[in-house]
Specification:
Low-confidence stretches of chain B: none
Order of helices and strands of chain B: EEEHEEHEHHHEHEHEEHH
CATH superfamily of chain A: MetI-like
Largest sheet of chain B: 6 strands, mixed
CATH class of chain A: Mainly Alpha
Shape of chain B: globular
Largest interface: A-B, 20 and 25 residues
CATH topology of chain A: MetI-like fold
Distance between the termini of chain A: 72 Å
Radius of gyration of chain B: 18 Å
CATH architecture of chain A: Orthogonal Bundle
Mean pLDDT of chain B: 89
Helix content of chain B: 40-55%
Structural class of chain A: mainly alpha
Number of helices of chain A: 10
Number of helices of chain B: 9
Largest sheet of chain A: none
Strand content of chain B: 15-25%
Strand content of chain A: under 5%
Mean pLDDT of chain A: 92
Oligomer: heterodimer
């Protein structure tokens, strides 16, 4: 009986489990943010093309991913890939792949909106000085669009960090899954989920403050 | 220097310039007058290659604006200042002035800054070299935009109603600068409704109406004789209280 009580109680080892969970959560989030940002930048720039056929092309990728739940995308990748290919990716790979594609779709929209938010007059002022399209884009549009993009991007990243908790549903032992496992073992759901809640908050809150700070810092009027 | 050859420019069904022909030499100040919507600004934008022309051709130093490869040379030779000031908001005044000469004219940073200080002195704003655009008044921004255009050593300055968005005090700041530049021999092609500026500085007046050139005359003759001879011009000048 004593052994069972000991088994049920929270131990020092559990804190290491939580730390490992945070590690997995951060690993999945950071990798998918990096890949998703790269995808988003490329597609966002293609979306700005004046050629309608070219600018519409990324929508084939963006719209389905923006208009379906992340959980279904996760299941589609996790259960679907082994069905249609001979490849059996790990839960970690599926999590990173799905979150990257999802981040890429949302990031592409942010990039596109930030570039389009720069007034046409800024392009023309650059052209009138003798710059070509690429030069105007690099020297005048990108720095301004970047300022608009940064706070929105940080907000998206915070969202993706929180959405990464869905990866627990495909058995990846992230922070949420760790909380669930320990909670079931200890029968102390309030304490365990409280710890998970606090840990997500500790990671997210400074980021949301950073977003607010960047938003304020980058305010400029035309 | 600039030959506008029989150009037509339409926006949808609206023809703004119809078979328009005119030449500009590399000297003096030409003021372009006419009621709103007659194609004055469009003419300047076509010369600078900011608008594609439907037919005809514009040659700057013998190079056609229809050939995209020539646009850089044309724009370097025809500096343009817009009605709404467009400074780059992410750069301070000095960087607004120097980024293009460094990138396009391959000036060193030091040379570009020296040139910027020269032109900032000319427009009386050397003390604002570290300011951002939102720390400047409308008139100051416009003077910086003029100085920035001059940084590229253009053969002509195209001025598109540069004072129309400014209050009278700021307008006079800008006009004083333009008068000084004209006295220094800077060639200008200005769309404006500032008649006092036209009388004082211009050597030639073009009057446009409905996309066509109504008159092209020396300034003295325009204000002394043509205004009495041409009913349309007389009506326009009376309307703006001239």
């Amino acid at each position: 009986m004593q052994a069972f009580e000991k088994y049920r109680s929270l131990r020092l080892l559990d804190s290491l489990q939580f730390l490992r969970g945070i590690g997995v959560t951060l690993e999945v989030t950071l990798l998918s943010i990096a890949i998703g940002t790269f995808i988003g930048i490329i597609l966002g720039i293609i979306r700005c093309s004046k050629n309608k056929a070219v600018s519409s092309l990324p929508l084939i990728y963006i719209e389905p991913l923006r208009n379906s739940p992340l959980v279904t995308q996760l299941f589609l990748v996790y259960y679907g890939i082994p069905m249609i290919t001979n490849w059996m990716p790990s839960a970690f790979t599926c999590a990173v792949l799905t979150l990257s594609l999802n981040t890429g779709a949302f990031f592409a929209v942010l990039v596109n909106n930030s570039i389009k938010a720069i007034p046409q007059g800024q392009w023309e002022a650059g052209y009138a000085l003798g710059h070509g399209k690429t030069s105007v884009f690099i020297h005048f549009i990108v720095p301004q669009a970047f300022r608009l993009l940064i706070p929105q991007a940080v907000t998206l990243y915070i969202g993706q960090l929180q959405c990464s908790s869905y990866v627990a549903l495909i058995s990846l032992i992230d922070l949420t899954k760790t909380g669930e496992t320990i909670s079931l073992r200890t029968m102390m759901p309030f304490v365990c989920w409280g710890i998970v809640f606090a840990l997500y908050f500790i990671i997210s809150f400074p980021l949301s403050k950073l977003a607010q700070y960047l938003e304020k810092k980058n305010e400029f009027a035309y | 220097m600039i030959e506008v050859k029989n150009i037509t420019k339409s926006f949808g069904d609206l023809t703004v310039l119809k078979n328009f022909t005119v030449n500009f030499k590399e000297e003096g100040v030409t003021v372009i007058l006419g009621p709103s919507g007659t194609g004055k600004s469009t003419l300047l934008r076509c010369i600078n290659g900011l608008e594609n022309i439907d037919s005809g051709d514009i040659l700057v130093d013998g190079l056609s604006v229809n050939d995209k490869k020539n646009l850089r040379h044309i724009r370097l030779n025809c500096g343009m200042v817009f009605q709404q000031t467009v400074l780059f908001p992410h750069l301070d005044v000095m960087h607004n002035m120097t980024v293009s000469p460094i990138k396009l004219l391959k000036l060193s940073k030091k040379e570009a800054e020296e040139r910027a200080e020269f032109y900032l002195n000319k427009v009386g704003l050397i003390s604002k070299k570290k300011s951002r655009h939102n720390e400047l008044s409308g008139g100051e921004q416009q003077r910086i935009a003029i100085a920035r255009a001059l940084m590229m050593n253009p053969k002509a300055l195209l001025l598109d109603e540069v004072t129309s968005a400014l209050d009278p005090e700021m307008s006079s700041e800008v006009l004083n600068i333009l008068e000084k530049l004209a006295a220094d021999g800077v060639c200008m092609l200005a769309v404006t409704h500032e008649m006092s500026f036209a009388k004082k500085v211009a050597s030639r007046i073009l009057f446009l109406d409905k996309g066509s050139l109504v008159c092209d005359e020396p300034v003295e003759r325009f204000f002394r004789e043509t205004r009495n001879e041409n009913e349309r011009i007389s009506r326009f000048l009376n309307f703006i209280g001239e």
